[in-house]
Structure formats: C-alpha cells, structure tokens
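Example record

Each entry pairs one chain with its bound ligand, phosphoric acid mono(formamide)ester.
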Amino acid sequence: MSNPLKGRSLASMKDLSPDELKLVLDTAAAVKKSPQEYRSKFANKTLGMVFQKPSLRTRVSFEAGMTQMGGHAIYLSPTDFKIGERETTEDIAIVLSRFADIIMARTFGHDIVLELAKHSRVPVINGLSDFEHPCQILADMQTIVERRGKLAGLKWTYCGDGNNVAHSIMLGGALAGMHVNIIAPKGYQPDPQVTADSQAIARKTGGSVTITDDMPGAAKGSDVLYTDVWASMGQEAEAAARKKVFAGYTIDMKVLGMANPDCVLLHCLPAHYGDEIMYDVTRTKNSAIFDEAENRMHAQKALMLLLAGV
Ligand code: CP
Ligand code: NVA
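Structure tokens for the complex follow.
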C-alpha cells in the first residue's frame, strides 16, 4: 500500500486528512499488537529530540519507542543549545537534519516547530508547542478506539483551559467525525481560528465542534471526558489567578456521573489532583489515563514509521 505520509512532518493535527489519521491509528494498533515485526525498522537510524520544556511521557515514550525499533534517540535538553539564542532555528534544523533521520521538538512558540519543519530535510514531529499537542491526541484516539471500538459519532467533552491539548482535540476529533464539546470559561476558550478550522473539517466528516461555558451541564451524555492542567508549561506565574477562574471546572464523581456509563475518562497527564480532576475519578473503571500514557509510545512508533517511510 502506498504511504502518503512518507517524508512529511507533523506540526498540527490539521496536517492529516481523515484517511491519513485512520492510517496512523490502524498502524498504531498493529504496532502495539505485534511490536516484534517492527524491531529492526530503524536500525542505524537516529531520532533527535529537542526540548525547550520538561517532559516525562514524551521523552521516554519517544526514546523507548525508537529503542524498540532498533534505532537510537538523542535527548537535547533546554541547556544544550538555546533555540534562537545560541543559533537560529533555521541553522539548527539544517544541522540536526544532517545527522538525524527524524526530529521531534517540544517548544514554546508553535512557529519554532514550523520553522524547524521548513528547513529540515527529514520529518519533524511536534512533541507539544504552546499551540498544539498532536502526538497526545493520536494516543488519546487509539485509547478511545480500544475502549469503544470506534470514534465517529462519539461525544468528546473537554473541560478546562482552551489550550494546546484542546486545540488538537478539536482538530483530531473533527477529522474523525466526532462531536467535540469544549467547556471553558470565557477568556480561556480556544483560539477562534482553530474553532473555525475544526468546524470546517467537521462539516465534511459529519462531526461537530461546539464551545460553551456550561460546566457541568454540557458534560451530560459524554462518551469521552477529558481535562488538562489549568496552567500550562510557561504559565506558572498565572497559576494562582487561573485557579480562581477555573473553580467549578473540576472533573469529579458528579461530573463523571453525568456522562454515559461507558464513558472513557482521559487526562494527558501530568495531573494536578484536586484542581482539574479528583484522584478518585482517575481510579474508576472509566479511567483509561494510564493506557493513554502507554499508547503515546505505540502511536508515536506508528507515526515515525509512516513519516520516515521505513
Ligand atoms: N502528556 C505529556 O505530554 O506528558 P509530558 O509533558 O510528561 O511529556
Ligand atoms: N497543556 C499542558 C499539557 C502538558 C502535557 C502544557 O502545555 O503544559
């Protein structure tokens, strides 16, 4: 079968068509089922991982995934080279792509991921920017398929900050024909361009994207309930003020009880228990948060296989 993703980068969920998203998710399921079939695919190949921010899941899942496929991953910490300070993003992309076969970058500005992709001669993967977190949403969707057997038609509710994770959920959910329901306070709702883009996609796929501040009312009948921290990396100084704004947006047992009985509870992690989510909710049978974390590795292995075309 031809691979339409070969040689491409993934900066945004918007970079994928509905068929390409399905290809990544089907490949992720195959990789998880039979990892041995992929164990030499990246022999003698190198993944360069550029981090401007901290990470547990992204770093370890990419590195372990590359090891499992016979390759090597190099972790480049925020202190190794300061993007745009020690040298330009353009030069970093050119130099790094002379050594590495694939690049993953976790950045503040989304423009840095786009600039790396523009000047790299190998695929660049967004491992989280201030604007999007596509790898997370691929793992989320793999987890939803495992639990519910499908994506199209499901109501996916996200409660909290209209941030990078929310943006990728809107675009990814729309691509898959899901009904994405963002509940966020006014002033913290998603970027209007992402709302317009995801609604345009949803019109073609039979899905929908709605934005509301009706918490918890709009969580009723959810098939997927999701939340993320109220203050993202880089917003630490706003944390106290945000805690006040988001009071009332916590996912607790009452909110879970409003969702469908077989609702899948997700959180990208790290969690701040007692703020955006209560600990007891994450230990119910509805919770798939640790399958979701594990699936980061399987989904990203699939993504790297497809982008590298190996
Ligand atoms: N969910 C996620 O991206 O986790 P890390 O920040 O630990 O990589
Ligand atoms: N929105 C969070 C996600 C962490 C995985 C952040 O950007 O910090």
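The CA atoms of residues 61 and 294 lie 8 Å apart.
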